[in-house]
Design brief:
Layout (H helix, E strand, L loop, with lengths): L1 H57 L6 H39 L6 H54 L12 H28 L9 H25 L4 H31 L6 H27 L14 H6 L3 H15 L10 H31 L8 H30 L2 H43 L6 H30 L4 H10 L7 E3 L2 E3 L1 H29 L7 H26 L4 H18 L1 H16 L7 E4 L2 E8 L3 E6 L4 E5 H6 L3 E2 L8 E10 L4 H14 L10 E8 L2 E10 L5 H19 L8 H13 L4
Antiparallel strand pairs: 1-2, 3-4, 3-7, 4-5, 5-6, 8-10, 9-10
GO molecular function, one term: mechanosensitive monoatomic ion channel activity
GO cellular component, one term: plasma membrane
Organism: Alcaligenes phenolicus
């Protein structure tokens, strides 16, 4: 029975195998046919890809976004097909290699060796054909990726050309017919994309996302608490001064950014992040996340710098009324920046029409114009309708710079408004987004960081001076100079980083816009070594303007921050600052000329020829400049000295290369050429700060005067004047007989020549009062005494 049962089971198993064999064979044949069909489709797609590459590489063609989107979708499907083929072929290749490894090497049995050898050869031929198909599939993957890159470049070229092309004006309602014609196709694409999201949301739940409402709520609560305690911490742990304000602004900026970004990012992930998203959906999610980051930075900058509840906390000093008017500007700016960045997804990712994109650009430009127009209107009242407080020189200077920047902003606003009305919606939107909004945000960030670094430097300098008993000591000066230079380098690094972020590869849109706008001027008209190209001249002009502003700030920093921490005289400080400015302007001019294609050797010869020509034609100016250099090196006259030159007397205020400016005591300014300062007699009454001043007076009396009484009166008058020094002692003498009179003289010493006239006046009035009390009168011929004093002063080198 057991044997019979075993035989029945073997028979049933054999019959089952016989029934399943055709089905398995058919399935194997079906898989092979599917692979062959996919390989044929792949070869056909490869031919299309190579034809597309030939068209795109051979000519600098541009492709509309709609067509680019369709071609890109084909390439994406080709990549997916090649991926499936590679996966299937790799699986078959592993099976073949396993079978070959199982067969091993040839054995000694001839009959078995022939059968295995034939099978091995068949497997090897199949493996070679399989590897060839696998190389083709992988090559198609690479070529499809290259073709997608070429498509993107062609689309970018189309966008560049379209940016500078006038479209139908949105304001004049010229775009309505074109928009109505393209709307059915656009609505279909938007509906398909919305259907993808509906399917994604219906197949998943918001609980499957990584976002957390509890986390967003916790961040908000923590940030609200920090907003309340941060002013207390800053006031407790930082010294009084501007460092408190800038540190509080930095802290508020960081808190606003973290709170806004975390909350918006969590909400985006909660609503949009789902499993099994398509590449297009992932791209939209990436746009939403990047938009949240950038919009959070914009909101944090405005809220922390301008819209502060207390006036002392605002880095930009605006009135409370202006602050109330701008309280809704920050959230509106946040929403607009977020919407603008997110709308970039719909311009090329789902292939909408040019009419729809033009309408989107127009709406974005219109919203920007409304928002910026409101901001300019509010700032106009702040800058031009408020009266400046008397005595606030720094505030008045800052307000003048702000007014200049406001006028520039108004000009740019009028330009963008004209482009928008005229029909250049794309160009106006790009200008608003990439040339105004992004530089504004990065500029505000750089300004906050630079002010904070400057406040740290000032606080450290104040701490050093307060801690030291002798602020003028050499170690304190060295430490002060190190602090000034270190923080100046840090501030310059922040500024250059902001400039690089605006104009570098991190933000390529401004660079691409300039290149596309200047393509019409690529043909160079040469005049000698100079290339007359509009783009080069505009770039050189921009470099000249930016360089001029940087040189101005460099000279201001040297004059106000670095030079006061040195032991140099004020005149030499101004001379060094002037020389640095001239050298910097010369280097800037050479750089701009080299950008225009002028060789450095030619620039050297040009300046050599100009120097020779100026030496002959402008000898007086060259002589004054040479004399100015000698004055700065030898320093016979310094800023602040009291000098007499060419009948003018006053204090030296400035020593420049061409002339020296002397402020007379009647508050008028005399400009003395430096050649006269070096070539003629100049009397410096305060050559050394420690030199004493002298007062000499001579009085003529009748011959019958009581000489002892006169000497006693002079002695008492000199002793009663408190500003006359007792050491060296005053000199009183009887100088002899002049005609029918006798002369008495006094020579007294004072601490400085600055008080000579006042002390001499007080002394003479006291002497005359004492003489009148004693009934002693002067000789009527006092002019002889004056002539004698002038002669003695000319003969005596000490006077």
């Amino acid at each position: 029975m057991k044997t019979l049962r075993l035989g029945v089971q073997v028979l049933l198993l054999f019959l089952a195998l016989l029934g399943a064999w055709p089905q398995a064979q058919a399935q194997a044949l079906s898989e092979v046919e599917q692979e062959r069909e996919m390989i044929r489709e792949l070869q056909q797609a490869q031919d299309e890809i190579r034809l597309m590459q030939y068209r795109l590489e051979g000519n600098q063609v541009s492709i509309r976004p709609e067509r680019s989107y369709e071609e890109d979708q084909k390439l994406v499907r080709t990549q997916e097909l090649s991926g499936r083929v590679v996966q299937s072929l790799e699986r078959r290749s592993r099976l073949l290699k396993a079978r070959l490894q199982e067969l091993g090497e040839d054995s000694g049995d001839e009959a078995e060796q022939l059968i295995v050898h034939n099978e091995r050869m068949q497997l090897r031929r199949a493996d070679a054909a399989l590897r060839a198909d696998l190389r083709v599939a992988r090559l198609v993957q690479v070529e499809a990726q290259q073709a997608r890159q070429l498509l993107r470049e062609a689309t970018v070229r189309y966008e560049k050309a379209k940016r500078w092309r006038r479209n139908a004006s949105l304001v004049l309602l010229e775009s309505l017919p074109e928009l109505a014609q393209a709307w059915p196709a656009d609505r279909s694409k938007l509906s398909d994309f919305a259907q993808q999201w509906r399917g994604t949301w219906s197949n998943s739940s918001w609980q499957q996302s990584s976002a957390s409402l509890w986390m967003a709520a916790a961040v908000l609560l923590v940030m609200l608490a920090l907003f309340r305690v941060m002013p207390l911490w800053v006031s407790r742990y930082l010294p009084a001064g501007r460092l408190r304000r800038s540190s509080l602004i930095i802290a508020n900026l960081f808190l606003w950014f973290i709170a806004t970004w975390v909350v918006v990012d969590q909400l985006v992930e909660l609503v949009f992040q789902r499993p099994d998203l398509s590449p297009t959906q992932f791209e939209l999610l990436a746009y939403l996340k990047v938009g949240a980051w950038a919009a959070a930075v914009a909101l944090a900058c405005i809220k922390s710098m301008v819209v502060q509840p207390r006036a002392s906390w605002r880095l930009i000093p605006v009135s409370t009324q202006t602050q109330h008017r701008l309280r809704y500007f920050a959230p509106a700016f946040f929403l607009l920046v977020y919407a603008d960045i997110t709308s970039s997804f719909f311009r090329g990712s789902i292939g909408l029409s040019d009419a729809f994109q033009s309408m989107a650009d127009g709406v974005s430009s219109l919203l920007y114009l409304i928002l910026y127009g409101y901001g300019l209107w509010v700032l106009r009242d702040e800058l031009f309708n408020r009266t400046d407080v008397a005595g606030q020189g720094a505030s008045r200077t800052g307000r003048s710079w702000a007014r200049l920047a406001f006028k520039g902003g108004v000009l740019v606003y009028i330009l963008v408004l004209g482009l928008f009305i005229g029909g250049w919606q794309g160009l106006s939107d790009d200008l608003m987004s990439h040339f105004i909004t992004m530089p504004l945000i990065l500029g505000l960030l750089a300004y906050v960081c630079m002010v904070w670094l400057q406040d740290i430097a000032d606080s450290l300098l104040t701490y050093l001076r307060n801690r030291s008993h002798d602020p003028e000591a050499a170690p304190i000066r060295v430490q002060s100079q190190f602090i000034v230079v270190f923080f100046a380098i840090a501030r310059m690094t922040v500024l250059l980083l902001a400039i690089w972020m605006v104009s570098g590869d991190w933000l390529t849109e401004p660079k691409q816009m300039l290149e596309s706008g200047l393509d019409v001027s690529r043909e160079a008209l040469r005049l000698g070594a100079v290339q007359w190209r509009l783009d080069l001249w505009l770039i050189a002009l921009g470099v000249m303007l930016v360089g001029g502003v940087l040189i101005h700030f460099l000279r201001t920093w040297l004059r106000q921050n670095y030079m006061p921490n040195t032991t140099l005289e004020p005149g030499l400080q101004n001379a060094i600052v002037g020389m640095v400015g001239y050298v910097a302007y010369f280097v800037l001019l050479v750089i701009c000329l080299s950008m225009l294609g002028v060789p450095i050797e030619s620039v050297t010869w040009i300046f050599t020829a100009l120097t020779v020509g100026l030496g002959f034609g402008l000898r007086g100016i060259v002589q004054n400049i040479a004399s100015g250099l000698m004055l700065m090196v030898e320093r016979p006259v310094k800023v602040g000295d009291w000098v007499e030159v060419e009948g003018s007397e006053g204090n030296v205020r400035q020593i420049r290369l061409r002339a020296t400016y002397v402020e007379r005591f009647d508050r008028t300014m005399v400009m003395v050429p430096n050649s006269q300062m070096m070539g003629r007699q100049v009397r410096n009454l305060t050559y050394t700060p420690t030199s004493l001043g002298a007062i000499e007076s001579r009085l003529l009396f009748p011959l019958d005067v009581d000489a002892d009484a006169v000497m006693q009166i002079l002695r008492e008058a000199v002793q009663s004047e408190p500003e006359i020094l007792t050491e060296p002692a005053p000199i009183l003498s009887c100088d002899g007989i002049f005609g029918d009179g006798v002369a008495f003289s006094t020579r007294c010493f004072i601490s400085t020549m600055r008080v000579q006239r006042r002390v001499r006046s007080n002394l003479m009035l006291d002497i005359l009062r004492r003489l009148r009390q004693q009934g002693i009168s002067l000789h009527p011929a006092q002019r002889w005494v004056q002539e004698a004093m002038d002669k003695d002063r000319a003969d005596d080198p000490d006077l």
